[in-house]
Structure formats: C-alpha cells, structure tokens
Design goal:
By secondary structure, the protein is α/β, with parallel strands linked by helices. About 30% of the residues lie in helices and about 25% in strands. The strands form three sheets. Strands 3, 4, 5, 6, 7, 14 and 15 form a seven-stranded mixed sheet that branches. A six-stranded parallel sheet has the order 10-9-8-11-12-13, sandwiched between helices.
C-alpha cells in the first residue's frame, strides 16, 4: 500500500507501507475522504518533511478490521478521526485539568503513543480505537470528512464566546475562518465582520451569515466606522499568517479580546506597547474534546452549520501533487478540497 507524504519543501511522494493490521487495541479504517488542511499546505511550503502522522489528519472511513480487545466498535462502523480521550495519568489530568491532557496534546500534533506512520492520504490506516469517533448517522461522508476542523473552530468559539450583541471580527475566510464565522453566528454575536482579500470568499462569508465582508486594506477604517471609533469586541484570528497576529490586535477595541485559531508557522512581528495600552486579552485554542466533537456533528447534522458549501472539490489520491501545487499558490477557486483514496 502507498501513502502520500510531504517529504521536502513542495515535494509529495508516494511511500510504500505494508497493508495495515491492527494491534490488539487498534482498528483498521478504510478511508473514504481525507480533507486537505491549511497546515498541510503550510507544511508543503516549509523546509523539510512534514510530520508523517499529521500529513492528512482530517478523514472519515469505515472500520474493516479490529484488534482483539476492541469492543466499542464493530466492522463496518463509520468513524471520524479525532484526538484520544484524556489519559487520566499525566500531570495535567492529576490536577483536574483533563481538557489540557498532555497525551491528548501529543496526539494533536502527531506525536506520542497515538502517532501513526502516515496520515489519511492513503487507502487504509491503523489507529488506536480511542481516536475513532462514531460518525453521526445523519452526516454525509463529505460532511463527516470536514468535522475535525469544524470541531476545532467549535472549541475555539466555545472557549472564547462572543457575548450577545457584540461586534465580532473574523480575520481570514478560508475553511477555518468560514467555519468559525458560523459558530460565532450561532453563539449570538450582534455584528459579524469578515476580513478577507479574496472576493469570492468575501461573498461566501456574506452568504453564511456575515453582516459585512471587507478587504484587509480597508478593514481598520471600516471597523472603526462601524463601532463609533472603538474597534471590535473580539477578533478571531483565522488567517494563520504571522503578520495577522498584530493586525488582529489593531482591529480590537481597548479592553477587547483576540482569539488565536489559525496556526502561524513563523515568528510574528508584534507591537507590545499597543497590546499593553489597549489592555488586550489574548487567548488561544487548540484541538477539542470528544464532547465538543459530538456537539459539532450535531450542529452540522441539524443544518445550523453548513459544511457542504465549503466543500469546493474532490480529487483522487493520484492527483494530490497537482492540487497541493494549486492550493499553495493562494490563487485558487477552491475553499475545501477532499482527497478520495
């Protein structure tokens, strides 16, 4: 069997692996779809190989084999990849911070005992059964393949919830930003403003419930006009670009909040004096809990959050090089691309 891995900057290779067979606590999943994440594109653009376990980490599929000790799942079950439950053994768990479990964190970044030799850009993958969540039966396969990033955004907004009636800014209208926008709308923000350079994505933002969508070049003046010169109550930074960390603070009011969601791989230039003068509260969110994962599936299943509109195309695994090349240019009509192994 072959899996696609990022082996060097702007290089994807098909690497041979033995057909997976489960250990006693594992399952083998036949992968239906695997989403291409923004971090996959960042890794593709960076020097060196991507970490194998996270190269294709948004997937859904069907259980085809299971280990001797796995009782919670059956052959044929449709599952979605997730982080494992809290371990109960690490230092964070011992002091009651189960949501900050170190084992879960390691799995989130593709390390530790739950890491795999490759990700979901393959026909099959063996994983620990604790990382598999039963897919909501009311979801399509395409929706199920997009639940992992949607759950990340759900966790971020649940952690940094806008108060009813507040002005919320979403910085970046890629898949993460467009998902965050919908959770912010559901949470009850009064005015939602999206900042995005791509005209098509600005239009999509408006269709998904944003009240305004503006180009970054005019964002500061526009938000100032909309808020009587104050600035936004909360800014969700979803672009994942080093420079946009400071611009998120620029757009917030004095005493406002900035929530970091997008992952910027480089160091960010900031102006600490402005953060201090504004008394900005900066928070960050990474991952999700299994409870949040199930809740996110429920919101998508009942139609309150639309992932279908984000899905802009599907490609075969053999065409993965071409689509990565296109997405990495930033000049593309795609929003969310799924790979079909």
């Amino acid at each position: 069997m072959q899996a696609a891995l990022i082996t060097a900057k702007e290089t994807i290779e098909f690497v041979d692996f033995d057909d997976p067979y489960p250990d006693s606590d594992q399952i083998v999943v036949d992968i239906t779809y695997c989403g291409i994440c923004g971090t996959d594109i960042h890794a593709f653009q960076s020097e060196g190989p991507a970490w194998p376990s996270t190269c294709g980490h948004e997937w859904t599929g069907y259980v085809s084999k299971k280990g001797d000790t796995v009782n919670r799942l059956s052959d044929g079950d449709r599952v979605v990849i997730a982080v494992p439950p809290s371990c109960g053994q690490c230092s964070a768990c011992h002091v009651g911070q189960m949501e900050k479990c170190q084992t879960v964190l390691a799995a989130t970044v593709g390390r530790g005992q739950f890491a795999t030799p490759h990700g979901g850009f393959a026909k099959q993958l063996a994983i620990h059964h604790g990382r598999a969540v039963l897919a909501n039966p009311d979801l399509s396969d395409e929706q199920a393949a997009q639940i992992e990033p949607a759950a990340i955004c759900f966790h971020a907004v649940r952690t940094n919830t806008p108060m009813l009636g507040e002005t919320a800014v979403i910085q970046g209208a890629g898949p993460i930003g467009l998902s965050t926008l919908q959770w912010v709308r559901v949470a009850g923000a009064g005015t939602i403003i999206v900042v995005e350079p791509n005209e098509k994505r600005r239009a999509l933002s408006l269709a998904l419930g944003a009240h305004h969508a503006v180009d970054p070049s005019s964002a500061r003046e526009f938000i100032s006009d909309q808020t009587s010169g104050l600035g936004a109550d909360i800014v969700y930074e979803c672009a994942g670009i080093p420079a946009t960390v400071q611009s998120a603070v620029d757009l917030a009011r004095r005493g406002g909040r900035v929530a970091l969601i997008g992952l910027a791989l480089g160091d960010a230039p900031i102006t600490p004096r402005q953060w201090l003068i504004k008394e900005i509260q900066v928070t960050a969110a990474l991952g999700y809990t299994h409870e949040e994962f199930d809740m996110a599936m429920g919101y998508v299943a009942d139609g309150r959050v639309d992932l279908d509109v984000l899905h802009s195309g599907t490609v075969d695994l053999l065409d993965i090089n071409a689509i990565f090349d296109e997405l990495s240019t930033g000049v593309t009509e795609h929003t969310k691309v799924l790979v079909k192994p």
